[in-house]
Amino acid sequence: MQQLFEFATDPLSVGCLIIEHMIDTLAGPGTGEADALTASDLLASIRASRDLENAEAARQLDLAARWADLHPPESIHSAATFTVPGTDHEEPLAGDGCPLIAEFAIAELGTVLGISSTSAKKLIGHALELRHRLPRLWTQVQSGHVPAWRARTVAETTIHSTPSLTREAAAFLDAQVAAVAGRIGPAQLDRLVAETIKRYDLATADPATDPEDGYLSVDPRHATLHDEDVHFAGTMRFEAELDIADALDLNHAVAQKAAEQKALGSAESLDVRRAKALGDLARTQTALDLLNPAGGRVAGDPAPGGRVAGEGRAGVSRPDLPTAREVVLHAHFSAESVGEQTVFGPTGRMEERQRLILLDQLTSWCGDSRTKVTIKPVIDLNTHLAAPGYDIPDRIREQVILRDRTCVFPWCTRPARGCDIDHVIAYDHDAEGRPQPGPTTSDNLACLCRFHHRLKTHTAWRYRVTGPGCFEWTSPHGHQFRRDRSGTTAINEGDPDPPGIPRPRR
Q1: What is the pLDDT of residues 135-191, one digit of tens each?
Q2: Does 300 lie in the same domain as 420?
Q3: Phi, psi angle pair for 60, to nearest 5°
């Protein structure tokens, strides 16, 4: 291994040579040599593999920071930026003191890495936060003493700290974390951030709650749905930090509902009954019903206890408040006719967050007396629909949403129902008397989230339709990607910058 470093000083070359050395060590000239490795050899090899992984992760952070250096706000020198809505603008990705970046530069880095623009934004933000506000930790990452993932955890915390950390506060926290070589857990990190906020007087003092230094005015309450981690049984985790009184009241209500289920004959475990109780509370709560005509009672209707809605504090009609007990889910199941019956498949797809759903779950939901079920007509996704003019009728919009499912930009997962419907070939509003180059038809429409819609409109990114729901994208640097219902595929990784593709401005 020493010889490798004597002949290769470039970091990339070193990485390649290490990989070659590992392959030679593991595979050897014959296939049987790998089987002959001792336990010590295997442990040494896997440790070397882990070290290489950490080194490459650190290098990715460095390259992400350099990408930001190449695309400062000064690189946006088009006059249209200041006059045309939706064009490129500067984007802050990290804390105070970190450089800004041209917003549209984020997307191409993400597509090359095979991640979404949101993940690419986070990667660049972490790199800038570490390099500019946590320099000690940055040095330890680049020297291999701290894994990149640990440092990124710290950077994520300092970027989104509430209240925001000043440059001086971030430097203090950097010194504390670096002193233990980044070996700090989430709870310790939270305490360190709290200490930093207190030390630098970042919280606004409130004599009523904290007459000494105002630290208690930092409110830790939250209610968070962890929808990225769905169990195979069709469940999600919900986490909350509540006021003490609210927490005790909620626990009492959940315990009471769980006991009611048991009294009614439920044989499920206490944990399951408590979990179901939360759902029952969400569906049967009435705090907003009296305040919202859509919630069930309106002003003038009899209410429990003989009071009339509209009388007293609890009965005021407030049409500006959100409707209570209304959750709309879009579930799609394949079906086939068996004789005179329609038989649905055991699993389907829920549009919300693109999750699988079990038919048994849907059946139980529909059996609830408080559930309203609407069955819409089947839409043939392969039917060619067209409309005159620029406006997109609901029937075509629904077809495109169901066909694309998500934003069709490479690696993007934004649900299609919240996206814009884009004319792939732009509609020409001045095409009177000649064929319309960008008609409003199924095969010229696609779902794009607002960010990627702006990106397509105002940059050198281009895409074309290659089939129903299939699109081919070309980036400003000539990287090409195929996006269809199965996901995203890079189609020219070894041939960047093909002829005719303009490079972005420097």
Answers
A1: 999 999 999 999 999 999 999 999 999 889 999 999 999 999 999 987 888 888 989
A2: no
A3: -65, -40
Query: Is 463 within 8 Å of 472 (Cβ atoms)?
Result: yes
Q: Where are the alpha helices (DSSP H) in 143-185?
A: 148-159, 167-179
Tokens of 387: 């409309």
- pTM of this structure: 0.68
Task: Please check whether residue 73 lies inside any domain of the structure.
Answer: yes
Task: Please give the angle made by the CA atoms of 39, 148 and 229, to the nearest 5 degrees.
Answer: 90
What's the total number of domains in the chain? 4
What pLDDT, in 10s, does the model give residues 388-443? 889 999 999 999 998 998 999 999 999 898 899 999 999 998 878 788 899 999 99
Segments forming the whole domain that contains residue 435:
386-490
Contacts of 158 (CB under 8 A, 6+ apart): 95, 129, 133, 134, 165, 170, 173, 193
Strand segments, DSSP code E, in 201-344 are 222-226, 237-241, 331-332, 335-338, 341-344
* Dihedral angle over CA of 414, 320, 246, 314, nearest 10: -160
SS3 assignment, position 303: coil
Q: Does residue 376 belong to any structural domain of this protein?
A: no
CA separation (Å) from 196 to 161, 163, 203, 449?
A: 11, 11, 10, 38
d(CA 491, CA 65): 26
Is 371 within a domain?
A: no
Question: Which residue in 105, 107, 77, 102 sits closest to 90, CA to CA?
Answer: 102
Q: Does one domain contain both 181 and 66?
A: yes
First to last CA, the chain: 40
